[in-house]
């Protein structure tokens, strides 16, 4: 495939451009915003002289474009901060340090990533099982009650925001039935069983909403594949219906599903803001919302860049998956 | 050459009439708009307002749970009162409808205006203009709009009216889809004979755009707007739910849900009211948008007569084709009005 490398390069450049614009816009927005980062970092009890010293250390007296340039430099070469008494080295993909806690943004992101990944991966397994299952079922048993049920399920799922599904799940399973404890995140390495138990509701909330989309996609894609000529040929040769579906139709039908999963997983890796906030999962999304409210610019920019990167990468992966599975797609 | 899009409200109405689900959605939407428009009247009939505290109606010993059954429902407080403050829930819900629908409709109108302007300019402009505008559009399509919205909302001072701010932020961030659709449509139409004839007859490009192209844009733009509107409702609710959108004392359904999350264990009716309303609203708009799409799609319309199954299949296929690009954007896709990236 000669087009692929060129496509990847173009895709990469586009991704870099989008991320740069994003970072620049955020920088501009927060620079215009009222509020002095040095005072934020120093705390309310600082004297004016101390604040001024911190401003100097943080480079806040530089013009904004210079600050932005230093930030970009830090990503490529790393950065060494002076902390007054000593110095703090921030290695190569340096995204700066938090105004509030002084923690390196890259450390903070690495710290929050496991929770976000746990939520995203678990939810994806569930939504694929539920979504693809119902989608296939209704494609293979057309008409009648299954199809109508699926139409209803899809509509309701598509129309329900995740925070409503989540609140209802909490209400039913924790308040009324009291089958589950109110979720509080436990890390996988601490206690796998508690990890899964506490993530069950967040997984379900996300998965139910996503599954509707996947059911619809699987169904239409399966029906489309089954109507294609080569499937008709297989049938004409006397291949049994089960074998036709399993051996021949499934692969073609699931291609868009897999591509879409790649996309959604990328989006989720960027942090499911609402789900994490609702269920109190200490992931990237929750951190972003908190940092935005605290005007902690380096953390906000860092997390947004990681989120953007995840989305853009997933986007490219999905395109490539599509192209590999279906030669008719032209990469552009 | 695709058949001309159906013209006239009457034709759309005739096609919508055959779809009871879409009609039901339409009726619900009309009711909601009436409720939102008549909020002051409704609250006046009840005799309450959105901001008055009623400390006597909540149990201060338990931290502020409303006294009485089902969140304190009574003759003077039709849907009960808010835990903690005792503010009237009926008044807050009907006034909240104003904010929720107002922001969504306003944002959609902004998105349409910006998107159509960009799409027209890109489609009609020179190759250089087109590629510049298309790049700008691409950035806005791929940009995680909700995340940027959060950052913007956080830095604007609290004195700026939040509903207006939300409208502006959503409107200015998520117009990329409209621009893409309009550009594609303009490029298709531009190559058609009737547009060329108009140009040959001596019309200026501007006149051609206005007289020949704009009418052809109505159907796709209207369809996409109908799909986008529930997305905007959910975006507003989501941002307010995160505590970054509409903040108390101004009510919106998302804001009410947000404050309800701390109360759902003690007072479940407070959570259920805005949740159910939001759900019903988004469902109504989604079903109606689906109806509009079928009614305005010349291909689907002819299938309608043959049987609903073929029509539905057509719709499903259109989705699968549209989803990858849309889902990638981090902006909620058209068939996915839940706040995509922010789920």
TrEMBL record, chain A:
Subcellular location: Cell membrane
Membrane topology: Multi-pass membrane protein
Pfam families assigned: BPD_transp_1, BPD_transp_1_N
InterPro entries: BPD_transp_1_N, MetI-like, MetI-like_sf
Transmembrane portions of the chain: 12-33, 119-140, 152-179, 195-212, 257-279, 299-325
This protein's UniProt keywords: Cell membrane, Membrane, Transmembrane, Transmembrane helix, Transport
Domain ABC transmembrane type-1 per the UniProt entry, residue ranges: 113-322
Similarity remark: Belongs to the binding-protein-dependent transport system permease family.
Protein name per the record: ABC transporter permease
Automatic annotation (TrEMBL), chain B:
Region feature Disordered, mapped onto this chain: 307-343
Lipid bilayer topology: Multi-pass membrane protein
Compartments where found: Cell membrane
Keyword Transmembrane: yes
SUPFAM superfamilies registered for this protein in UniProt: MetI-like
Domain ABC transmembrane type-1 residue range list: 97-289
Protein name: ABC transporter permease
Lineage: Bacteria, Bacillati, Actinomycetota, Actinomycetes, Kitasatosporales
